[in-house]
TrEMBL record, chains A, B:
GO terms for molecular function: carboxy-lyase activity; pyridoxal phosphate binding. Keywords: Decarboxylase, Lyase, Pyridoxal phosphate. Its cofactor is pyridoxal 5'-phosphate. It comes from Xenopus tropicalis. PANTHER family: ACIDIC AMINO ACID DECARBOXYLASE GADL1, GLUTAMATE DECARBOXYLASE-RELATED. The keyword Transmembrane helix does not apply. Coiled coil: none annotated. It comes from the Eukaryota. Belongs to the group II decarboxylase family. The modification N6-(pyridoxal phosphate)lysine is found at K311. This is Acidic amino acid decarboxylase GADL1 isoform X2. One of its GO terms (biological process) is carboxylic acid metabolic process. InterPro entries: PyrdxlP-dep_de-COase, PyrdxlP-dep_Trfase, PyrdxlP-dep_Trfase_major, Pyridoxal-P_BS.
């Protein structure tokens, strides 16, 4: 027992109780493992993308059980190695499966800093640096939208950003809803395309609007919202005596990567006085490119925009901005609860910097910082170069698909999504009846299973509208090269030609 | 130009375009800085808790502007040093300002791994390890609630967890609300205490319930919900022909750290068939302690529980579980949108492991993993020891406050919150009229300003109900010792005795 020990409830209160040096050593050891096993191998195409294990088998390999007593470092380090070994390498140049990929070292370094500092971004007092970097990056993003001014907040995902937009729109329509709720409100209707992200339905359900009150607007054969159909849906809602309040256009749809015609949609929103939201979670990053920003022509007319730098810009999950054109404090009025223990008005500094009450969260991560660090390190031109290259690679892949026997490009890519079928030789001369489509719909899942078990690459698939299962291939990372595009097609042929 | 270069749109597509070794070097350099400047100094009381700068001054020091061209490493490394220098050291043993603090090395190491792996936890296919560790930790947490079975999901914060509970409760009451929304629903009313977290109001606003439909139940002088008052409020709602649907009790209130009487509240919920939610975001960690888990007696009867291991258990922001007693798939039925591109049903593995559709998010961080790693490393007994010690230190602080002239303990602490006034000598013989309280309310803010500018410690303050500004002191970290408690009181006296 220590000298002069003070005991309360049998607990010695003198001095710290943990051995920091042991913990520090553990951090160093884990860091070395992850650098060697992961970061230095991130772009090595000789590594597997994944080391597939069935769930029940992986449970055993990981030793998931937690015990009353802690485990020794040696065992924990082995566990960390296994965690890395059996995780999907989303930074691998051949991970084409999702709308995120790759590894940006500047963002990663920034994330290590924020993890070690463990800030919560609600007040300037506890998070001075991260309040200011968030403000700076929001301002910069707003500049790229073409707005003169605006407001914004980083949220835990594009889905949540879309929810913010819905809530802002209805608050703008009727501020009383915040206090009174929807039970005495008329039936509110929102509009989005049938190609929108599924979070629009989740938003409608969660916010009490109801999924039936999302009116889905038809798209053209490229997956773009048809403005005349939007007008028709608005008329339909009005005829039903419902109240239209929001249109959500999509810039970069999830499956096709299509961009809605924002300018035409803005005209309709203006005419009907509807809130104009753009879900640019995926496609917003095209704004960084002089060549591709035309895909979002008209975005300067939006009332709000969701844009996720963790997707195309590789800022790391989660990094999602909700940007709002209003600069009168709408975001705060709509979401604030004015907690007196956190947002005291008698602080000794300018409490305008206490931005937390704009958020639906209380604790909030410093997600903006990593993107600020990346952009600072690479400059606008560095980010632009990445976008241009990813989209050039996509075009290369599409052109190769068109050249190859047994491949069918389903849509000319507009962004980084390439959607295509691989048709194994045995299918090529079959009659395209119901039996064909039933059998053919198994081709992509089977090839997917084989690539997962081999660990050679990951490409997603899905059925969509009238098309049975097809591959959706996404290019993001600057580590990806033309050789990887050729590999994808060769590998699909290798894995699927016997089907 | 490289050999056999393929050009598309003027972009060379061969080989990767970035120099990984330069990026890797940057990660190594930043890591070394943060270990030396932050992690190794985390528990050093000779360091400042914060290096205060006014916002305008800090903007200049940080060089926030982003340019067209990237900045050199040398400059970026200096910037990282400044970010660390001017950030609040939330791991400092004298950071008592929020409901989180300290540094757990196991969690930190785990966070470095997840940042480098950059997973998104929605499908087993892309996130096998993190799906399984989330499942394992949820199961373990459910065990500590005393439930035989249950379900759950990690969310981006206690506020969002509370929103989940509200949505589940109304879905249970009437599943049609998901499709139809609230406009044709009766007026739904939820109940919580006047000491609840402000997120309950945010939840009511965001979910379309309306803040007026949160009926606040009176608390006793310890800040605990009075069951008879809850019964009265429910009767009031029924008389108004509104529909009660949810009671949210609080285990560990934000300011006082009070625990509502769960068993009595459960009786009332049962009687009226109301969803019983417990916001144990702060206090849930007492469940780890044999000594203190009685504070949450009755929690096994809850329908849902919010519990944030990032608070008392130091898992790092964000780490927040929403636990649900229902095991019939309610969480998924309530929140799912069944995106066919993500949650394909024709996958080659058991798609029950694709848990993402339980969430309102799409991309979702692997927040559960760091907690799993910590718990694995420390064992239940290690976590219990921390809780017991933090609460023993709190009791020590309270007893010292009672002994000292000029300090007034406002409530006997029930958890880790100690609320007290410091009364400078010049106030001690003043008559306690309006003038006294007006002047006295400036004492805590002035001392706070002085401690921030000195950087010696951080303790929060707020007015609350009939009490003008008082300090709220929180103990969490095992790095904190009895000496730090003595320091807090000495330092407040030093900073405030001339007021």
């Amino acid at each position: 027992m220590k000298r002069n020990a003070v005991l309360v409830d049998g607990v010695v209160l003198n001095g710290p109780i943990i051995d920091s040096s042991s913990g520090e050593k553990f951090v160093e050891d884990v860091y070395r493992i992850l650098m060697n096993e992961l970061v230095y191998k991130a772009s090595d195409i000789n590594q597997k993308v994944c080391e597939w294990q069935e769930p029940e088998q992986l449970k055993k390999l990981l030793d998931l059980n937690i015990k009353d007593n802690g485990e020794p470092h040696e065992k924990l380090l082995q566990l960390c190695k296994n965690v890395i070994k059996y995780s999907v390498k989303t930074s691998h140049p051949r991970f084409f499966n999702q709308l995120y990929a790759g590894m940006d070292h500047y963002s990663l370094a920034a994330r290590f800093i924020t993890e070690a500092l463990n800030p919560s971004v609600y007040t300037y007092e506890v998070s001075p640096v991260f309040i200011l970097t968030e403000e700076a990056i929001l301002k910069k993003m707003i500049e790229f939208l073409g707005w003169k001014e605006g407001d914004g907040i980083f949220s835990p995902g594009g889905s949540v950003s879309n929810m913010y937009a819905v809530n802002l729109a209805r608050y703008k329509y009727c501020p009383d809803i915040k206090q009174k709720g929807l039970s005495s409100a008329p039936r509110l209707v929102m509009f989005t395309s049938e190609e929108c992200h599924y979070s629009m339905k989740k938003a409608a359900a969660f916010l009490g609007i109801g999924t039936e009150n999302v009116y889905f607007v038809k798209t053209d054969d490229r997956g773009k919202m048809i403005p005349e159909e939007l007008e028709n849906q608005i008329q339909r809602a009005k005829k039903e005596a419902a109240v239209p309040f929001l249109v959500s256009a999509t810039s970069g749809t999830t499956v096709l990567g299509a961009f809605d015609p924002l300018d035409d949609i803005a005209n309709i929103c203006e005419k009907h006085k509807l809130w104009f939201h753009v879900d640019a979670s995926w496609g917003g990053s095209a704004l960084m490119s002089q060549k591709y920003r035309k895909c979002l022509h008209g975005i300067h007319r939006a009332d709000s925009v969701a844009w996720n730098p963790h997707k195309m810009l590789m800022a790391g999950i989660q990094c999602c901005a909700l940007l709002v054109r209003d600069n009168s404090g709408l975001l705060k009025r709509c979401h604030s609860a004015e907690a007196t223990y956190l947002f005291q008005q008698d602080k000794f500094y300018d409490v305008q910097y206490d931005t937390g009450d704009k958020s639906i969260q209380c604790s909030r991560r410093a997600d903006a910082f990593k993107f600020w660090m990346m952009w600072k390190a690479l400059g606008t031109t560095g980010l632009e170069e990445r976008i241009n290259r990813a989209l050039a690679l996509t075009r290369y892949l599409a052109s190769e698909i068109k050249k190859r026997d047994g491949f069918e490009l389903l849509w000319e890519p507009e962004y980084a999504n390439t959607c295509f079928w691989y048709i194994p030789p045995s299918f090529r001369n079959m009659e395209k009846g119901p039996e064909y489509w039933r059998k053919f719909s198994n081709v992509a899942p089977t090839i997917k299973e084989r690539m997962m078990k081999k660990g050679s690459m990951m490409v997603g698939y899905q059925p969509h509208r009238d098309k049975v299962n097809f591959f959706r291939h996404i290019v993001i990372s600057p580590q990806v090269s033309r050789e990887d595009m050729d590999f994808v097609l060769d590998e699909i042929e290798r894995l699927g030609r016997d089907l």
